[in-house]
Amino acid sequence: MFSRASLARIAPFVAYIGFIAVTDLLERFGVPLQELRWLYAVRIAVVMALLAVFWRDYDELRGERGALTPTALGVAVATGIVVLVLWVSLNASWMQVGSPSGFNPTSADSGQIDWLLVTVRIFGAAAIVPLMEELFWRSFLMRWIVAPDFRNVDPAQATLKSIAVTVLLFGFEHNLWLAGIVAGAAYSWLYVRYRTLWIPILAHAVTNFLLGIWVVHTGHWHYW
């Protein structure tokens, strides 16, 4: 669990979650949420730095490139779109845990959208978060449950237990827990089916990118 290979996939995820906890704590202590918006940029910068430090350890990002066929890429994009539709639909009260404030990029004074904040948010959500989360949830945890020497576990060897545990934990990582479970199941299926992490990363990126566009268009900031 604490080998360099494990640490390389755990550290960026823990850093990301840690910043969420710090932001929540500061908000509880009365720091206005508007003043905490730029913490997201710091969070993404820290995760990017950790990914860069451990980049040579991510052998799964260099292998199985033959699986990146036009069909696989098309399925990934289609899956990402379907997950987005379900994500904004599975929002009944019983499908949620808590009520997050979300990420509101509008100015408290003028009400205008801060487009730099929006750009940082969408970049982080679409380019960094899918890479960080898929390295942790699919590449590490799902395979580690099968065998501690997870790097030698082929994605197709994932068991029902390893998939179920990963999907459930991934789901409850999110406020919209049912939507999270559906997304986790979809991304896990892609990983097992195509045996390359790039396919679920792409699907995850499509979901997050389009969600960002939808949130900005509709003003439903709580989805962020």
From TrEMBL:
It comes from the Bacteria. The keyword Manganese does not apply. Residues 119-210 form the CAAX prenyl protease 2/Lysostaphin resistance protein A-like domain. One of its GO terms (molecular function) is endopeptidase activity. The chain crosses the membrane at residues 7-26, 38-55, 67-90, 115-137, 158-191, 197-216. GO terms for biological process: CAAX-box protein maturation; proteolysis. NCBIfam families: pepcterm_CAAX. This is CAAX prenyl protease-related protein. It comes from Zemynaea arenosa.
